[in-house]
Design a protein that fits this description.
The structure is a homodimer of 189-residue chains.
Chain A lengths: L11 H15 L6 H7 L7 H4 L3 H23 L6 H13 L3 H11 L4 H24 L4 H24 L7 H15 L2
Helix pairs in contact in A: 1-4, 1-6, 4-7, 5-7, 5-9, 7-8
Chain A binds a DNA duplex (30 and 30 nucleotides) through helix 2 and helix 3.
Chain lengths: 189, 189
DNA sequence: CAATTTCCATACGCTTGCGTATTGACATTT
DNA sequence: AAATGTCAATACGCAAGCGTATGGAAATTG
């Protein structure tokens, strides 16, 4: 994370966005007030004006992340009428590179912060219920839809990590497109 | 991690096993010499007798993890002749709780240590090639086997995280068995 | 214009943890 | 018995980072 141009005056959003950037690349544990301040071109005096402490900052950042992510999913996916199209849009969205996915991936691995586990669980259950609903609308029984949504979601989570782990062995554009089509074929009823 | 009974004298294996326990539960970044020493009932003087530094310890611990895991996979899965049985064994093994899975999950999230990325990639590629080989032996084309093994592996990785994230909502034994059967049905040719 | 508010810099004390140096205790070898 | 090797304890200096306190600068309000 590079130092930004010194800005006239910072607001809480500036801090939160910088925090999400750290979380995306290094996880919640790497969020540190002083290096963040340095990156933003200030010292920590102003940080403590805006936030009670480090955890307050992280919670605010995650709240923002969650809200933005919900909005994106609603616009891109759950505005579609046809459940098949919705599921397809999910597969394509889930394979797109984005900071949101990176943040989500690091939250998945967090073992130390109860508030992280809480946000993670809520976001995950919400997404799963959207997927289950879509599968049910295609005609699946409730119990099959439940298993299938869990499976499809596991594929998303797995893909998040595979893309990073096998960087350079997965990243050819045609391979990604092929894979997504393959997955959609396997997981769409 | 609790303090163990004070042992007469520690060997490198003691340190490595304690380190894997920390990695499993909190990730590589949480490995710290002094708390480890405390947990083992000694002070860090003897740590530095056995290991050059913290990284040396972590690398040794990961080397042990990798070696044990390879052995387990070979015994439980790749000793089977029938590729269908092998794949089924993989699905069941991958859903079993184990420290090895926990370690693997935290390695997946590590963004800070090049040597971790290296081990992770090697382990992952090795497992993928085993899976691909098994799918091919069931009669799949090479390119389908490749995609299918990536998909099946993504499901494993996804499941690792879902089990933790949705703790208490996934952990009923019948649900796990149902899920594994469901997955096997979907992903076995 | 003075008072208040907002944002910010800096000093301080504390904690955690690292690696190095030194010394001690015990076991093994010569 | 002396020398050597193994394991371990402790002190030390350093760094990173946290939160608190204090004072300053700029903007806004009355």
């Amino acid at each position: 994370m590079k130092s930004t141009t010194k800005k006239k005056s910072l607001n809480p959003e500036d801090w939160e966005l910088a925090t999400l950037d750290v979380i995306a690349h290094e996880g919640v544990g790497a969020v540190a007030v002083e290096p963040l301040a340095k990156a933003l071109g200030v010292t920590k005096g102003s940080f403590y004006w805006h936030f009670a402490n480090r955890e307050d900052l992280i919670q605010s950042a995650l709240k923002r992340w969650r809200s933005d992510d919900q909005m994106l999913i609603k616009q891109r996916i759950f505005s579609l009428d046809d459940p098949h199209e919705r599921l397809k849009a999910w597969f394509f969205l889930s394979a797109e590179p984005s900071q949101s996915h990176l943040v989500y991936a690091t939250l998945l691995a967090d073992r130390k912060h109860g508030f992280v586990a809480k946000v993670l669980k809520e976001v995950t259950l919400e997404r799963l219920s959207y997927l289950q609903k879509a599968y049910q609308e295609t005609g699946m029984s409730e119990s099959d839809a439940k298993q299938q949504s869990l499976l499809a979601y596991s594929v998303y989570v797995g893909y998040l990590h595979m893309a990073k782990t096998l960087h350079g062995k997965l990243k050819e554009s045609e391979n990604i497109q092929n894979y997504v089509h393959y997955v959609a074929n396997q997981l769409l009823p």
